Amino acid sequence: MGSRGKPEESRAAILQAAAKEFAELGIAGARTDAIAREARVNKALLYYYFEDKETLYGAVLDNAFSGMKARVFQALDSDLPPREKILAYVGSYFDFIASNQIYPKLMQREMMRAREGQSEHIDRLVKTYFQPIYRRVGELLHKGITDGEFRKVDPAHFVPSMVAMIVFYFSSAPVMQRIVHFNPLTPQRIAERRVAVLDFISAALFEPRASADLAPRKPAIGKSGVRK
Prior knowledge:
This protein is mainly α. The chain is built from 10 helices and no strands.
């Protein structure tokens, strides 16, 4: 059982167990005794680290979205040109969600709570995580447009479309399996999806580059001065 002697390990175990419980049952259906049991800590220790279930739920959200922000900012802080940087951002976001597949459920549940006016965390999440990421991606899109690398798109529409292409795939996997008759979440299928997402975004966003083969050729001039 976890103890106060290993606070980081115990806290991490509680957050991991709580993320699963909240993703599956929501905050109303989640039970702290089940979380403590899954984390292999006693309930008193859980309340030692987290005052109540709502506090624990907020900590789970912060843990999830801080990890996501750290991952995508590695790409957004790079010195890559716009095309490579936007694909690096999308790839890093995809990889984060693929390795944390319960997070789309957490996101959906929190969005529903926010829509119903029941979330006391949404303003903090927006200010701390969503707005900084959106602002940086928006700046990247505007730079790519200015440089002639990207089509003229509206970040208010294009950014959520990119996110939806990733998140929806994982959240809809049980339904998709019934439609396509294969498991969308095998490593091979996830890898195929990653390629498809990057290809789709490239086709939707990138301006075509002039090919050297397609550029008009200057006519050759012979010794007599006659153009060939």
